[in-house]
């Protein structure tokens, strides 16, 4: 037990705590975070790829009720017949489309025989740096649109909706927040118009099918979580071996008796002193 006593010194205890805490975070936070992002990205890529080949379906088959959402059907093409509600239009600010700033224009759409859904008409570019430009009004009569299902975004903490340039503005496409803001009930998922649709503006294209580096990052964090304790064990073993060598050398020095002088040494010592 004595040989392990050095591990209870403050410096070693601090090192032990840091290494174990790091390994714990690698396995419980950092690796799951990156692997979760990889799973989400892979799932979204599969949904995008499937949406390109699947035929559009009526929106009411996926969003039959006012409180419906379809997270497993994101990017699926749907059709909807109904009317825009332009009096409740809002814009999402601080968006980036094709590498440039943009506003996305959002308006409720009452589906015939179905729920009211939020429709992303597309984007417009800001004027004068950050001002919302004049936005063409959507059609007033019944129309049929084709769009892609999108998941509602999370609200941005600390960023409340506001009105400026005569337009209600929000920081995220959060259907619950926009429903409370406009007073119009909305489904959990919203629709993003594809090209050549009634009421459409600048078309927002599909994201690139890129899985990203998340899988490799997740594996790296797992590797770091394994290597850290192994490295600690290596240094503990090296310290123990070094202490053993020092102890053995000390014991050997203390146990070795004075060697008697040989005859030659005695004569050399005797005659050397006479000279």
TrEMBL record:
Basic and acidic residues bias (residue ranges): 256-275
Residue ranges, compositional bias (Polar residues): 62-71
Question: Chief location of this protein?
Answer: membrane
Q: Which family does it belong to?
A: Belongs to the SURF1 family.
* Regions crossing the membrane: 12-33, 214-236
**Where is the region Disordered?**
46-73, 247-275
Task: Return the protein name.
Answer: SURF1-like protein
Q: What membrane topology is given?
A: Multi-pass membrane protein
| Gene Ontology CC terms, in alphabetical order | plasma membrane
Note the InterPro entries from the entry.
Surf1/Shy1, Surf1/Surf4
UniProt subcellular location: Cell membrane; Membrane
């Amino acid at each position: 037990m004595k040989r392990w006593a050095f591990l209870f010194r403050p410096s070693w205890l601090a090192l032990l705590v840091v290494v174990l805490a790091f390994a714990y975070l690698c396995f419980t936070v950092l690796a799951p975070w990156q692997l979760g992002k990889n799973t989400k990205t892979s799932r979204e890529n599969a949904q995008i790829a499937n949406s390109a080949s699947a035929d559009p379906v009526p929106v009411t088959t996926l969003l039959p009720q006012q409180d419906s959402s379809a997270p497993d059907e994101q990017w699926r093409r749907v059709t909807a017949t109904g009317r825009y509600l332009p009096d409740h239009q809002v814009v999402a600010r601080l968006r980036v489309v094709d590498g440039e700033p943009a506003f996305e224009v959002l308006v409720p759409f009452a589906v015939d025989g179905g729920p009211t859904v939020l429709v992303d008409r597309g984007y417009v570019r800001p004027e004068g740096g950050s001002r919302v430009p004049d936005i063409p009004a959507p059609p007033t009569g019944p129309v049929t649109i084709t769009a892609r299902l999108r998941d509602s975004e999370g609200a941005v903490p600390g960023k409340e909706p506001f009105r400026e340039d005569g337009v209600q503005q929000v920081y995220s496409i959060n259907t619950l927040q926009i429903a409370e803001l406009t007073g119009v009930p909305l489904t959990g998922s919203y629709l993003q118009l594809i090209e050549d649709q009634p009421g459409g503006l600048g078309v927002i294209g599909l994201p690139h099918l890129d899985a990203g580096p998340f899988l490799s990052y997740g594996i790296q964090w797992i590797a770091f979580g394994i290597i850290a304790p192994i490295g600690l064990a290596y240094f503990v073993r090296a310290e123990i071996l070094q202490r053993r060598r020092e102890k053995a050398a000390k014991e050997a020095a203390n146990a070795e008796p004075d060697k008697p002088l040989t005859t030659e040494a005695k004569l050399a010592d005797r005659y050397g002193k006479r000279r």
